[in-house]
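R.M. (postdoc): so does anyone remember the format we settled on? I'll just put the structure tokens first.
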């Protein structure tokens, strides 16, 4: 979910293998209804951006709350995590704080571990003059500006919700006239945070869905080894899930050979994940 024009659709397209979302290149928001994108192993709900006026925002808010409250056949909340995309060029974040404080947090239990707050379009901040086109990264002045912005957002949300969030900044990249998307920045950090805030038994689903274009994951702030950490997170999630299966089913009635198969799978699956060459 996002404020209007924050680049949520471009973010989805950068993260995943196929183009699941159409990017709006006009002043009109592309997403007007909650759109479902079923990628077999992952389901995305692309929500309308806020900022179209009080009446429209009220309608969009009702739809978002309804979706957040949906449950699956087991009575579990349908939404695993939420990514709030913010337009980094925006000075007035009132609609963003309202979205988080009044819509997401009250309807997303354990929100601090299930929500990612990401600031997009950082290459256009400060008129874009502090973006280094040749190396696809912010200069030192812009980095200082961005760090201060993240701290202000975090402090404001802490005051409003009592929850300490750690916003991240990135560039999804605009869609060019020939249909190609600009090279992103810090998408590896975005993906790492999304995977980290996904239930461990579902993290493996990302492996076949993420964008296999290596260039998407190359440029980041180098604060951590995000790509390696993402793989480690998924591997740990697989191991934890298998251990839970063993614990739940390892009774005297559970065939010994089946337990052995599960244990071997625990050894093999991480190796398969680590063999991904394009990520």
């Amino acid at each position: 979910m996002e404020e209007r024009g924050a680049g949520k659709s471009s973010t989805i397209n950068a993260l995943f293998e196929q183009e699941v979302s159409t990017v709006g290149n006009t002043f009109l928001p592309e997403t007007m209804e909650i759109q479902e994108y079923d990628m077999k192993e992952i389901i995305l709900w692309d929500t309308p951006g806020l900022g179209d006026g009080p009446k429209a925002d009220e309608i969009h808010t009702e739809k978002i709350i309804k979706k957040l409250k949906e449950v699956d056949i087991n009575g579990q909340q349908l939404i695993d995590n939420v990514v709030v995309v913010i337009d980094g060029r925006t000075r007035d974040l009132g609609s963003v704080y309202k979205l988080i404080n009044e819509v997401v947090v009250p309807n997303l239990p354990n929100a601090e571990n299930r929500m990612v707050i990401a600031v997009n379009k950082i290459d256009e901040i400060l008129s874009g003059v502090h973006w280094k086109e040749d190396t696809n990264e912010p200069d030192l002045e812009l980095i200082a500006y961005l760090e201060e912005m993240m701290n202000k957002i975090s402090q404001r949300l802490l005051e409003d919700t009592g929850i300490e969030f750690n916003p991240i900044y990135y560039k999804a990249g605009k869609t060019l006239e020939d249909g190609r998307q600009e090279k992103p920045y810090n998408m590896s950090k975005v993906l790492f945070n999304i995977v980290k805030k996904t239930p461990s038994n579902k993290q493996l689903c990302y492996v076949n869905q993420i964008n296999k274009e290596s260039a998407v994951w190359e440029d980041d702030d180098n604060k951590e080894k995000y790509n390696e950490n993402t793989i480690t997170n998924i591997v740990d999630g697989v191991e934890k899930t298998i251990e839970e299966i063993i614990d739940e089913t390892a009774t005297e009635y559970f065939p010994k050979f089946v337990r052995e198969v599960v244990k071997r799978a625990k050894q093999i699956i991480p190796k398969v994940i680590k063999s991904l060459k394009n990520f």
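R.M.: ...and that's the designed sequence above, right after the tokens. Also worth knowing: Residues 16 and 167 are 21 Å apart (CA to CA). The longest helix spans residues 226-249.
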